[in-house]
Amino acid sequence: MPSEDADLPTPDFTFDADASGACVAGIRPYRCGSYRLEAETAAGRFVVHNYGHGGAGITLSWGCAAKVQDLVRARIAASHETEAAVLGSGVMGLTAATRLLDLGLTVTIYADRMFADTTSHKAGGQWALSLVEYQGKDSELKDILTTSYETFKRGGQDFGVYERPNFASKKTHNLEEILRIAPGLIPRRQDLSRMPFHGHHNPGHLYQTLLVEPPAFLKRLVDDLNARGARFVQQNFDDQTHVFSRVTQKIIVNCTGYGAKKLWKDKAMHPIRGDLAMLRHQPNLQYLYSQGGYMFPRTDHVVIGGNFDCTDNEQPSKAECKKLVRAIAMNFGLAPPMAIPENFIQHPRITEWLRQRRLAPADTPCDPPCNPV
Ligand SMILES: Cc1cc2nc3c(=O)[nH]c(=O)nc-3n(C[C@H](O)[C@H](O)[C@H](O)COP(=O)(O)OP(=O)(O)OC[C@H]3O[C@@H](n4cnc5c(N)ncnc54)[C@H](O)[C@@H]3O)c2cc1C
What we know:
The chain is α/β, with parallel strands linked by helices. The chain has one domain (23-357): 3-Layer(aba) Sandwich (Rossmann fold), CATH 3.40.50.720. 31% of the residues lie in helices and 23% in strands. The protein contains ten helices and 14 strands. It has helices at residues 57-79, 91-102, 119-122, 138-155, 173-181, 214-227, 240-246, 260-263, 318-331, 348-359, and strands spanning 23-31, 36-42, 45-51, 83-87, 106-111, 161-168, 190-192, 204-212, 231-234, 251-254, 269-280, 288-290, 294-297, 301-305. The N and C termini lie far apart (43 Å). Residues 26-29, 51, 53-59, 87-93, 111-113, 118-120, 122-126, 235-237, 255-259, 263, 274, 276, 305 line the site of flavin-adenine dinucleotide.
């Protein structure tokens, strides 16, 4: 753990938004009320839904996969089925498929986009409860978080996972909630009288969490699934009828992320898009940082994000990426001051909406606060 007195290296915020791959955008699959993790019978099939994890899908993946495994294990104990289909090749589909192989099933993964084109591949990768609803599910979530955290830690760098401190100017809800729901799982927050950065000595907070690098993690999952005999089929489904006509397996695990809105006609699903600025890799930066946005130094890029727009348009915005970089650089005294933009997650308008959602009864409908005109 870094000491409070030592100054840590300051990031280099040089950013060329026009460079190829410098700015990416993804759609967080946000589900009002809660992520969906349950089984139903439809058209004679046993369908397990596992979608709607908002900005925390990487974080929750292994824990949700274990719950999927439990549901399928109970099913095959009675039915003796030997095959399962997984819809979706993002983090939810790949981790669920891994756990279904562990049950001894023959697994086929159907997906429109293969792993490198999914939202999961674009995620920043902090292990935190960001932008996800779980009303009334604290107890289930405690299990999910515990399984996920322990599995990620065990996998370590071979799975693209690093233990990292996160410096935050304000208490971050994403990590405070983990401390509340699963006490003792991650180390306690440390309150700092000064941030340990050259030119940036405001008071702050220090959390210890994980950084999961999605490109490395997903590639490892796919390599392992291939080595274990899972089959990948590139397929787009128009609707449920199409799924049931194309997929022969009796057990279907639905991990279609935001795609479930159309596929399963789920009105609780909302698109919350985020842009990410990809700066050059800076190996001297071994910490995460959040104030006005977030910065995750990974082994491929230093990733800067933190905006929130209600659209399913995946076209990245160079203007948004530049704003994200400037907001972080400003804190280090390396960019001119600016007010926190209204579409940043840490803007009071959005944090207040999130606070109200946490207090809302489980079935209260919601509309995320959209981009101001
Ligand atoms: C900018 C940004 C930053 C993020 N940062 C983090 C973070 O730091 N930590 C974290 O934990 N999470 C983060 N997330 C959230 C995370 O990326 C998502 O929660 C996660 O990727 C959801 O995974 P998924 O497998 O459900 O969906 P996806 O990755 O979207 O995969 C869905 C799969 O279903 C398939 N599919 C969908 N519809 C159909 C259809 N009709 N027919 C066939 N196939 C279909 C797709 O092709 C795809 O293979 C971030 C997200 C964004 C956008």
